[in-house]
Design a protein that fits this description.
The chain has helices at 3-16, 45-49, 97-109, 133-142, 155-158, 235-242, 252-265, 279-301, 310-328, 336-347, 352-356, 358-392, 399-409, 413-422, 429-451, 458-466; strands at residues 20-21, 58-66, 83-91, 124-129, 150-153, 159-161, 168-178, 196-213, 217-234. It is built from 16 helices and 9 strands. The longest helix is centred in the C-terminal third of the chain and has 35 residues, at 358-392. By secondary structure, the chain is an alpha+beta fold. Helices cover 44% and strands 16% of the residues. The chain binds adenosine-5'-triphosphate and magnesium ion (3 copies). One magnesium ion binds at residues 174, 198, 201, 484-485. Belongs to the class-II aminoacyl-tRNA synthetase family.
Amino acid sequence: MKTEEITKRWLDFFESKGHTVVPSASLVSNDPSIMFTIAGMVPFIPYFLGEQKAPYRRATSIQKCIRTLDIDEVGKTARHGTFFQMAGNFSFGDYFKEKAIPFAWELLTSPLEKGGFGLDPDRLWVTIFETDDESFEIWTKTVGFPAERIQRMGMKDNYWSAGQPGGPAGPDSEIFYDRGPEYGADGGPAADDNRYIEIWNLVFMQYERGEGIGKDDFEIRGELPTKNIDTGLGVERLAMLLQGVENFYETDQVRAVLDKAAELSGKEYGGTEDPADPRNADDVRMRVVSDHIRSSVMLIGDGVTPSNEGRGYVLRRLLRRAIRAMRLLGVERPVVGELVEVSKDAMGGTYPNIAEDFERIRRIAVAEEKSFLRTIASGTARLEESVVAAKSRGESLSGAEAFALHDTYGFPIDLTLEMAEEAGVSVDENGFRALMQEQRTRAKADSLAKKLGGVDVSAYASLREAGETFFTGYTELTSESSVRG
Ligand code: ATP
Ligand code: MG
Ligand code: MG
Ligand code: MG
């Protein structure tokens, strides 16, 4: 079943259950505290909180999502994309658990000829929040699901909250598919996340989050005005199961770019099962290319352009990582133009703006490649020298060296980190950051001194600086502490 057919069935099913079909919002959310739309619920937050009255009590959508938090998983797990589509159904003070759970069951297990997804009920597993007896009852009594395939877990796994105090929160119940013993150990979702693939999260959104950190260490401030439902199913994850492929990257909307990466590099994808075989690393690279190119196309399509901060920096990093992966596959000539074209062909049917706006998308992607290839050309030899020297001394690459690469060659720190790591050398990142900070302090003092007619006021500048936080790059750019368990 093609991805487009999955989304059509989803929307038809929930429409038949009285839900209003709401088009996907942009990847770039209106909320400045959220860098990207990371889940189907993001556009509906004001309705959950009761800040705005929802124009419908039941809604369904296929929402475009970007999760930068998952970038490092891409290509290595079977199930994580940076860009993916989340199918959702939502209730704003209308139905609650008693309907949300049976809806999910019906859609997943109804036969294909009846409009369902025809999953084998014996392969499904369920998790619930440890104290949520209500959900346990609905699963076992209303649905008839076997109690021995329900696992209870704590806040980290079965509780969702929007990262900041004041956001909606609630316990959830997740549905997993057992791919079979060849994928991992027995024991259900608690034991193995590669064999038991998480496909659908049903969140019972009924509380307001209070103070606290992260996913599992926060207080509950009180109840929301209404009890709501927020669910999210990974469209590509279901596609991977229904298409009988091994992972996210082999599904119909992603695979074409992977094949193009294989063709361009002359490497065979999936050529070996032996983990020691270096071609396995090549498989990861091809998967990274397929995801990052698609994600970049979708981001540019929603108006993001490469830059050194915020959303633009995420895009820059995605494109550069794809280019790096192609180089590690042995392709040094520019290929981004060809890769984005293939992705456009795969995505343009579902997202017509990608096809219509493609010349602009390609132009932006190719310009980024050009500038990155220039950077690589100038800095790689120097980096390699430093790495070899550090290795022979048995030391890590110094902060000063990383700083010089940045300052003289425009070599970004993440590239230094990645390339050094590949060579088995660590980098004194704190040393690098301290030097960056010093440089900024100096620059500020200089410009202040100029204004004040050459008086040395650097001491004041460093005082002012002391209160500022340092830029920590992509890892802390988003409010993705909100991502569910
Ligand atoms: P996982 O534990 O596998 O990382 P999650 O618990 O972070 O998933 P949720 O926040 O519960 O995911 O999101 C709801 C659904 O969206 C998931 O059940 C999954 O099907 C899908 N999903 C989440 N993250 C991704 C991703 N990076 N790529 C593809 N699908 C995803
Ligand atoms: Mg989840
Ligand atoms: Mg999870
Ligand atoms: Mg996750």
